[in-house]
Design a protein that fits this description.
about 150 residues; 9 strands; 9-stranded antiparallel beta sheet; alpha+beta; 2 helices; Lipocalin
Length: about 150
Amino acid sequence: MRLRTILAAFVAATATAAIAIAPAAADYGPGAVYQVEITVNEGGPQGGGIWLWLALYPDGTGDYAGSDCGHGHGAAADRGDVTWTSGNGTLTITGVVLNGFGPVGVPVTITVPSAYGHYPYAANAFTTIFSGLPPFISGGKGQVQIAP
């Protein structure tokens, strides 16, 4: 019985040490210069939401994952590759396709600040952040986080 207790303590201590020295895995991809998180929501029967996480790499490419939905349509998964540019204080991201707003995916262009930080959008977040959305998608409150 004593050997089991000692062995259990050793296993617990080893696992704790392994967790403590493991590197953080918050990076979306090795070498990303921008990590962009976007959430935009509009309540009510005509509302919906978009939730995206993007990793942007120094060569102007990137990838994204997330989901979007129009109320009454259910959430749809979004994932793929993007291209991006930076200029005049903004990031312009192309290649994102939103799958929850209709029978086919909707390609959009995303425009967000290029400086690292947190950006709240109190109104009109859908049309301020995204271009190319169907005309029935408007309004919305949002949050954007730009991180290294």
